[in-house]
Amino acid sequence: MELHQLRYFLAVVDEGSFSAAAQAVRISQSGVSTQIQKLERELGVSLIDRSPRRVTLTPAGRALLPAIRSVLTAVAQVSATAHDLRGLVVGSLRIGTVTGLAWPRLVDALAALHTRHPGVDLRLHEGNSDDLVAGVRDGRLDIAVAGWAGEPPPGLPSRIVIDDALVAIVAPGHRWADRAAVDPGELGVVDLIALPAGTGARTALDAVLARAGAAADPRWEVSAPATVRMLAARDLGVGVLSATTCAGWDDVVALPIDDPLARSRFGLLWSARPGRAARALLQQLDPDL
Length: 289
Description:
The structure is a single chain. The chain is of the alpha/beta class. Helix content is about 40%, strand content about 20%. Among the domains are: about 1-75, Winged helix-like DNA-binding domain superfamily/Winged helix DNA-binding domain (Arc Repressor Mutant, subunit A, Orthogonal Bundle); about 160-265, 3-Layer(aba) Sandwich (D-Maltodextrin-Binding Protein, domain 2). The strands form two sheets. Strands 3, 4, 5, 6, 7, 8, 9, 10 and 11 form a nine-stranded mixed beta sheet that branches. Helix 1 (about 5-15) packs across helix 2. The radius of gyration is 22 Å and the shape is elongated. The relative contact order is 0.14. InterPro entries: HTH-type_LysR_regulators, LysR_HTH_N, LysR_subst-bd, WH-like_DNA-bd_sf, WH_DNA-bd_sf.
């Protein structure tokens, strides 16, 4: 059994196809397939069900996946420790962010790390907050910039960057536009415009409605805050976002929600044992970490 075979197998799992895995590990698709077949023969089990449309894990593949991730994580830790002793920062760093994130501090930190440590292979992935948290937990990501409601996800180191009130946004001509605040229960009986489940603002909205005895059933479920803005500005419903997200928008009215717990939190999450490259990026983002 060779380490590169384990890496190729993990690349297929994480990338979702042999062709994408081949691009990620920079060898031919046939090379990836051949090495995984050799691994399967040596282990005596089939790891991957191959079909023209998609690649899925066999029961044996699912059972062995955590162990394979652990092996490769341990090998990476050995390399990271050796580089620490030599004072170098190299290796790979996998960062996840919420879709559509516009956070200059992160981009500046990535640029600074790339300039100071060009040997680090930086990879950036976008997704919803639930998926990003899961990615840090299972080792697919080293650092995530995600949102949540209430307490930070348990079991992971974290740092809150923004603790923000949730607001309802409406068109200037909407019947609520002149109000001082919105009652949480009212959000359950209007045409809601919301981000998808798994995002920080949506998790906070669901919690608000649950406390009010209502359920979230958005008429408009969209992936980007900009789309929430456009729909609300045209009086197609009531949007719900964090106050910071819609700060400065002059074509909608932002109304406080009458619930002190209606807050969306945004922050950093990282693995319990961050490598040197991850620590370097975290310190760029927050010198106190």
